[in-house]
Design a protein that fits this description.
mainly alpha; Arc Repressor Mutant, subunit A; three-stranded antiparallel sheet; 19 helices; about 60% helix; about 10% strand; extended
Length: about 475
């Protein structure tokens, strides 16, 4: 019986988007395209940009002999219907945006974990389990004597450790153990982003369920409003609502956020961090902003949900939807009543006139611009300018930033250093173009480096031969991305 139950469960799961994506014949291509465009960098893309990028990748695959006959729009529409993508209409935007569904995110995370599996039974995981279990046992102990004894023992241990540090005996975690623990922290933090999506899906499911209850409610306006308020309480009291509310309070607590930022800054300054790959270092640098961004999206969904329900009731839109449901139910009952009298193969002498109007999405409508239909004027001959190559060279030197020299300076330093900042580059190679060189390095850092949430002071000599300085965000150039500067 256990096998039968498991088979039935897996048969049901086999029809869900996660399993269908992994079992698809084009699964590697679909996962690779979705991961590169909606997972590694951006988390959402406008429809036009999404179609353009997918189309470019399909052309590259066709040039390699792969068979993809349909257009990018057709494939994206298919992925949307299969549940691999989600389409949203953010406020004050001109077109819809696409993002990965929870199933697609889980599939990408599963495949990525197979490519780089975690070591089994690592020290950090075992220590995490032991610490959590010990903490649980202590926090649930109601015996005052035992709790006081444990606190006194902990106080004595801390005192002994302070005395040992004062005497010069300080234990520092080895680099290998520190790297292992760092990767475990990255894995746990990355799991939180998946949790955010699942919570958001639960909120949306609760939203749909509540609207269905409002549609089935045959009472008057007051009863519908009571159902609405009860539904909002239901959302707040649900497992997803309570979990997210507690997490959001912790994440937005100024003291906790400051402690997290300080800890991240300290860890990023350690030597062992240079042994992490580029992807993990980028994740650590953006961890706080990523968590806040994902949490904010869930919080916005919850707020939008409450506002839309209120508008749904106050605008009496629910009455129109209820009437439509009643008509569909009556048609269904009428069909069931005559199912034994009318055969499926029997010809019905009834003509249904269909509308000839074309139905299109609102986002496909484009406003008429008369200037696009204006006829161009005749081309006028311009007067010749009195300018030579030397004056052009001077103008270019004054107005254009010498990115070639800046890239060469960065590469020169990365040949002997694993990572450098803009301040390090300016100390070794002073800014020949003054502020222009500083601006150029910031532009290169935002494009080819990693931005930290801390600042550094840089200085340069202006055109008036005066020393100037400024505080800028700290950017790190690393050896792994030096080929981008060549």
């Amino acid at each position: 019986m256990k096998a039968v139950k498991a088979i039935a469960t897996y048969s049901r799961m086999r029809k869900q988007p996660l399993w269908r994506l992994l079992a698809s014949s084009n699964g590697p291509v679909i996962i690779g395209l979705l991961q590169s465009h909606l997972y590694d960098n951006e988390r959402s893309l406008p429809a036009s940009i999404m179609h353009e990028r997918i189309g470019r990748d399909l052309e590259a695959l066709r040039s390699q002999g792969e068979d993809f006959p349909q257009t990018a729009q057709a494939y994206v529409a298919n992925w949307l219907s299969e549940g691999f993508l989600e389409r949203r209409f953010p406020p004050e935007v001109s077109e819809e945006e696409y993002e990965l569904s929870t199933a697609a995110v889980e599939a990408i995370r599963f495949i990525s974990s197979m490519e780089q599996p975690h070591s089994a039974a690592t020290e950090s995981r075992l220590a995490l389990v032991i610490q959590a279990l010990v903490k649980l046992a202590e926090d649930t102990d109601e015996d005052k004597t035992r709790r006081i004894d444990r606190l006194l023992t902990e106080q004595e241990r801390i005192g002994n450790e302070i005395d040992a540090i004062k005497k010069g005996h300080m234990h520092v975690l080895p680099a290998a153990s520190a790297l292992e623990r760092t990767r475990e922290i990255i894995s746990l933090a990355d799991d939180l982003t998946g949790d955010f999506r699942r919570v958001r899906d639960q909120f949306e499911q609760l939203n749909r369920n509540l609207r269905e209850k409002l549609m089935d409610n045959e009472g008057n306006r007051g009863e519908v409003l009571n159902s609405l308020f009860a539904g909002i309480d239901l959302i707040s009291d649900s497992d997803a609502g309570r979990t997210f509310s507690a997490f959001w309070r912790l994440l937005t607590d100024p003291e906790q956020t400051a402690a997290l930022d300080q800890a991240l800054e300290s860890v990023m300054s350690r030597e062992f961090i240079t042994q992490l790959d580029t992807k993990d270092r980028r994740f650590l640098l953006r961890m706080t902003s990523t968590l806040l961004e994902q949490g904010s999206s869930v919080h916005e969904v919850l707020q939008t949900f409450a506002r839309s329900l209120k508008r749904f009731v106050q605008s009496r839109e629910y009455l129109e939807q209820r009437r439509l449901n009643q008509l569909l139910t009556e048609a269904h009952l009428a069909a069931l009543a005559i199912k034994d009298e009318v055969k499926v193969t029997e010809t019905l002498h009834y003509t249904l006139e269909l509308t000839s109007s074309r139905l299109r999405s609102l986002s496909q409508w484009v406003l008429y611009d008369p200037s696009l239909r204006a006829l161009p004027e005749d081309m006028q001959a311009a007067n010749a300018l009195s300018i030579d190559l030397e004056s052009i060279g001077e103008l270019v030197a004054q107005s254009e930033i010498d990115f070639r020299t800046l890239k060469a300076n960065i590469c020169s330093m990365l040949e002997t250093h694993s990572q450098v900042t803009i301040g390090d580059v300016l100390e070794q190679f002073p800014a020949k173009q003054g502020l222009g060189s500083v601006v150029g390095l910031i532009a290169l850092g935002s494009r080819h480096g990693f931005k930290a949430d801390i600042q550094e002071t840089v200085s340069w000599i202006g055109n008036d031969n005066k020393q100037r300085s400024a505080q800028i965000l700290k950017f790190y150039f690393v050896q792994e991305r030096m080929n981008e500067l060549v």
